[in-house]
């Protein structure tokens, strides 16, 4: 049990939360949310949820990033609901890619974007960075759980800029320079259980680098050459590849082809220095130079996941099973023995946000098998 976990009774009443100790054991960490000014109310919903479930006890800083300056309104409403310091940053223009990088063939990029736009009409701009397998059943599953408004998502070019920024640049922002860990939060997500320990502290104590809650298969049409580029990179830079690694999780044929398994990166808790490392910086640069962020539609989810799978020891990734989470499309709901005061269910069929972990399109069972992850939470018992 991590130092900061505390017991609660069946009603979620704290039995021994120690506020002084929690503050003393805080890690150098911040939440990071990339958002537009018009995302303000979705941002407020997400902040409210995470504050109530976790941060009201810890007061970790909130960092907001935007490709435009944040409005006074955005700052006012988000800072009013955060229990901690808030800070607002603008993304440097050259990192957002307002101009295509000079090695990109603009004509080819524009054609690819138009083409992909046509193909993807059934699920529009709704799942741009972490998409879905080409299965009708699966699309219906996703489609039925997405809010209707998501159809009016950002333009395809804005999507690509955003995916590329989340893949290769957010961790270079000056506002993040002082931190060791970050927790990515998006507008319009929900945290469905009480979080009765500090995940940052746990990850630091257990020497974890990448924490996740949902994993699934990528839609191969968005990443036709991503794995080829990844293999080329590994061949050129064997020194960056961890041994052992999670290749068995991302490939069913010993690294020949990618099976699409990835962590759903709209939730992630990770070490900033992993992305800032020589290995990842070189990997991102290799991918970026190949143009796939523009010619295809590479998401930060498969890019982060391939890096975590190949440059980390499997034990450096952690399934944060106690954290209930919902982002339109899918949800992670802890088993009753792992979750505290959950507003989700793993056992009933009529939960509007059914747990995805046991769905056939989840890659989580395979991850557990490969890493030998325990079936039970280390906190079982601690929480009654
Ligand atoms: P999805 O989760 O893959 O469907 O992508 P989202 O539309 O939720 O976008 C992912 C994240 O990037 C969210 O935090 C959005 O608020 C943010 N985002 C997306 N597009 C833009 C953009 O054009 N500008 C800014 N500032 N943020 C964006
Ligand atoms: Mn999202």
Automatic annotation (TrEMBL):
Tagged with keyword Transferase: yes
Keywords for the protein's UniProt record, in alphabetical order: Signal, Transferase
The keyword Signal belongs to this UniProt entry's keyword annotation: yes
Molecular functions (GO terms): alpha-1,2-mannosyltransferase activity
GO CC annotations on file: Golgi apparatus; membrane
A GO BP annotation: protein N-linked glycosylation
Domain of life where this protein originates: Eukaryota
Family to which this protein belongs: Belongs to the glycosyltransferase 15 family.
Protein name: Glycosyltransferase family 15 protein
Organism in which the protein naturally occurs: Rhodotorula diobovata
Portion held of the full protein: 67 to 450 of 452
């Amino acid at each position: 049990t991590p130092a900061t976990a505390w017991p609660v009774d069946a009603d979620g009443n704290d039995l021994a939360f120690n506020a002084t100790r929690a503050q003393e054991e805080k890690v150098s960490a911040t939440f990071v949310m990339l958002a537009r000014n018009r995302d303000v109310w979705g941002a407020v919903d997400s902040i409210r949820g995470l504050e109530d479930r976790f941060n009201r006890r810890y007061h970790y800083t909130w960092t907001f990033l935007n490709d435009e300056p944040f409005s006074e309104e955005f700052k006012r409403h988000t800072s009013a609901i955060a229990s901690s310091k808030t800070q607002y940053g603008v993304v440097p223009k050259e990192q957002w890619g307002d101009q295509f990088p000079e090695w990109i063939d603009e004509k080819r990029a524009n054609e690819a974007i138009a083409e992909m736009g046509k193909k993807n009409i059934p699920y529009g701009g709704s799942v741009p960075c972490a998409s879905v397998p080409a299965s009708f059943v699966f699309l219906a599953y996703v489609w039925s759980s997405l809010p209707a408004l998501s159809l009016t998502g950002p333009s395809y070019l804005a999507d690509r800029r955003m995916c590329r920024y989340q893949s290769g640049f957010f961790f270079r922002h000056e506002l993040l320079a002082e931190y060791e860990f970050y927790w990515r939060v998006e507008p319009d997500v929900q945290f469905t259980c009480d979080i009765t320990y500090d995940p940052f502290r746990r990850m630091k104590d257990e020497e974890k680098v990448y924490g996740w809650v949902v994993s699934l298969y990528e839609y191969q049409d968005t990443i036709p050459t991503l794995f080829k580029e990844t293999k080329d990179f590994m061949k050129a830079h064997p020194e960056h590849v961890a041994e052992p690694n999670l290749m068995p999780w991302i490939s069913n044929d010993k690294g020949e082809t990618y099976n699409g398994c990835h962590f759903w990166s709209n939730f992630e808790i990770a070490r900033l220095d992993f992305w800032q490392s020589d290995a990842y910086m070189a990997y991102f640069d290799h991918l970026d130079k190949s143009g796939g962020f523009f010619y295809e539609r590479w998401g930060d989810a498969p890019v982060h996941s391939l890096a975590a799978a190949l440059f980390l020891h499997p034990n450096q990734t952690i399934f944060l099973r106690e954290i209930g989470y919902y982002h339109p499309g899918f949800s992670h709901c802890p088993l009753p023995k792992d979750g505290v005061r959950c507003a989700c269910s793993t056992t009933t069929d009529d939960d509007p946000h059914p747990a995805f972990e046991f769905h056939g399109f989840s890659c989580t069972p395979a991850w557990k098998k490969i890493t030998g992850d325990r079936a039970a939470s280390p906190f079982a018992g601690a929480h009654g």
